[in-house]
Design brief:
Length: 103
């Protein structure tokens, strides 16, 4: 199957929400969609949860090494994570790959 994973991330009041979709590319048919929300300090665990859900949905076997990494997510400092995301935004913008919207 030729599929596309599409997603969106939103943050508000110390919370982060990730919405992920699995789309069949040939027909633009939405096969799966799910939203996940957690405290911003748990963003790495949230990313791991979304990755595992997508892998289950498309039935990919995850190696023990990768599974170990997914299970060992630690808490992050929300301020530091925000600075990291802003840095990535400006780096991509400087390289001509970012859009003109601000972080």
């Amino acid at each position: 199957m030729e599929g596309i994973v599409e997603g969106a991330v939103a943050q508000s009041a110390g919370r982060v929400r990730i919405t992920a979709k699995l789309i069949y590319a040939k027909t633009d048919l939405h096969l799966w969609r799910r939203s996940y929300e957690r405290n911003l300090s748990d963003v790495l665990a949230l990313e791991d949860e979304v990755a595992r859900a997508i892998a289950r949905e498309i039935r990919i076997n995850v190696t023990a090494q990768v599974q170990g990494r997914l299970n060992s997510a630690s808490a992050v400092n929300p301020e530091v994570y925000q600075l990291y995301l802003k840095g990535r935004f400006f780096l991509e913008r400087a390289n001509g790959r970012g859009d003109e919207k601000g972080p």
